[in-house]
């Protein structure tokens, strides 16, 4: 049913974005600025940086409300880091900004390698892009806090990226268990109270007071990232397929995590 679409779309992508193989030239790092359409129709400029020596990809963009989203994929340590810097409303007694960090395991094939990313060039930087494949929302329950002083064990980039998050560095219990099984020290993680562990811990929007602990929610969406390489075939018989472009994806993440005060979760009331 989609067969009729394959050719025109892949041709279009191949013209717009090319994977240059730059034979004989080593490419260690690169930066790409891509204009992407956000869910509310606004256009944001996304910065994609690849460093193939450190084997990381960094993606960063600012939402219309001023929130800065930074995503780091550390392929060496198989860790991905989400950092969000949320601007506070000073007139409501909030801090100037609040930083949250979420750390989870990076799965294989979630996005293209840092080496391929470093070779990516775009032909038409003014074009406004939407991802070809829109993936759903992944739900993550962040039941563990990560101690910033020990976070270097998970990824050497974590301390730098999450420095300003302080105590607000979260991971899932299953991820923490995986890292513990692979030699990370137990003191790196601290279990957090969970809403099902008894009365008193409610979702923040229904929490009675600003100074009560509660379970906070935060959602974000990576609107555009290269998730797969595309291979093309030459007409020559028995020639092997070659890399000729990328497939772009968009994916949402919904985090739930403990906060010691509802005051630290004030965005989680407007959408209820
Ligand atoms: C985090 O680790 C440091 C260094 O080991 C330790 O001094 C500190 O007390 C820990 N913080 C928490 C909140 O456990």
Automatic annotation (TrEMBL):
Residue ranges of domain Out at first protein BRICHOS-like in the record: 30-179
Magnesium in keyword set: no
Any Pfam family hit: OAF_N
Top-level lineage group: Eukaryota
UniProt keyword list: Membrane, Transmembrane, Transmembrane helix
InterPro entries linked to this entry: Oaf, Oaf_C, OAF_N
Record-annotated membrane-spanning stretches: 6-28
Domain Out at first C-terminal: 204-269
UniProt similarity note: Belongs to the OAF family.
Protein name from the UniProt record: Out at first protein homolog
Organism: Paramormyrops kingsleyae
């Amino acid at each position: 049913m989609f067969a009729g679409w394959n050719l025109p779309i892949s041709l279009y992508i191949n013209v717009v974005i090319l994977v240059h193989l730059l034979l004989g030239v080593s490419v260690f790092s690169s930066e790409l600025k891509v204009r992407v359409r956000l869910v509310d129709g606004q256009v944001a400029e996304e910065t994609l940086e690849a460093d193939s020596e450190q084997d990381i990809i960094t993606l960063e963009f600012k939402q219309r409300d001023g929130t800065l989203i930074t995503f780091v994929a550390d392929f060496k340590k198989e860790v991905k880091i989400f950092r969000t810097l949320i601007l506070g409303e000073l007139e409501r007694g909030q801090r100037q900004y609040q930083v949250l960090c979420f750390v989870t395991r990076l799965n294989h094939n979630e996005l293209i390698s840092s080496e391929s990313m470093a070779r990516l060039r775009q032909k038409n930087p003014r074009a406004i892009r939407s991802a070809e494949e829109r993936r759903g929302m992944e739900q993550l329950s962040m039941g563990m806090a990560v101690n910033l002083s020990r976070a270097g064990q998970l990824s050497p980039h974590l301390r730098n990226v999450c420095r300003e998050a302080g105590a607000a560095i979260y991971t899932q219990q299953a991820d923490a268990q995986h890292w513990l099984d692979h030699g990370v020290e137990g003191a790196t993680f601290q279990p957090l109270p969970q809403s099902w562990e008894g009365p008193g811990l409610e979702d923040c929007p229904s929490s009675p007071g600003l100074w009560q602990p509660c379970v906070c929610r935060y959602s974000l969406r990576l609107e555009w990232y290269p998730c797969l390489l595309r291979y093309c075939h030459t007409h020559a018989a028995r020639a092997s397929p070659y890399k000729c472009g990328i497939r772009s994806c968009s994916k949402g993440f919904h985090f739930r995590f403990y906060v010691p005060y509802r005051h630290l979760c004030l965005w989680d009331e407007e959408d209820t």
